[in-house]
Amino acid sequence: MDIKQLRALVALAEQGNYRQAASLLCISQPALSKQIQALETQLGVRLFERGRQGAVLTAGGQRLYPEAQALVEQYQQFQRRARRVALGEAGRLALGFGLSSFHLAPQLVAAFRRRFPEVAIGLEDMPSERQYQLLLQGELQVGFVRLPVTTPLCGAALLSDRLVLAAPGALALRADDLMARFNQLPLLQLTPKRGRGLSDQSLRFIAAHRLTPNVVQQAGDIQTLLALVAAGVGVALLPHSITHIAPAGIDILPLSGEETEWQVGIAWDPQRADALRDNFIQTALAVQRA
Question: How does strand 214-219 pair with strand 186-190?
């Protein structure tokens, strides 16, 4: 049996007339009769009695009709969902983000949900380097990452971030004498394994300014670094975006000169066709341009 036969059963049961049911299905009456006969043969059950009043369900037909009706509705629902999936209007979207996109990523997700409410979205915090890996493996569809990205990934810039020095308020450091005192300050660092991009940016900044930092401790995440800074253990080179999560008692001091800024944007793998992902990218870029 196939869905056409089940649709024929449902249409004839509801219309009670071969001519009207055939018209509803856009087929001829003989074609409708053949579908019903073929279905009755496959099921081994006579479904309709044909008389002057039209087609009437038999006892067996009455018992099978509700289930056939449910199957036809499920099939129609599946077709509608398949069309939405093909258009990128339904499904699941896996996104990665980092500290620099701490505020931006949720805002863009909210804008996308308003346009495509049937899409389920997963948003996970992870370093850019990990996002690159998952994008290439197909486990992430879009990542909010440090730019530029390397081929085959594509990227589009959304914002910029910059290095700042997070320092205990008790040190009362001033921006105008910060560089002169930098080498004497106890420096806390993020382990390269946890944040390769930030680690490399800090090293480039240190090299560009010919500094010889006094590194006293490393930490595995930015929240721990901030806690150590707040406790007065030392200072740390961090993204300006930490202002969103920095605890009380920390001064955020701007840095100037070379190797202080970088771009943040979205990245994706264009080798993988994905209408849902493309809709998210278009939405993100449109929101940023507005």
Answer: parallel
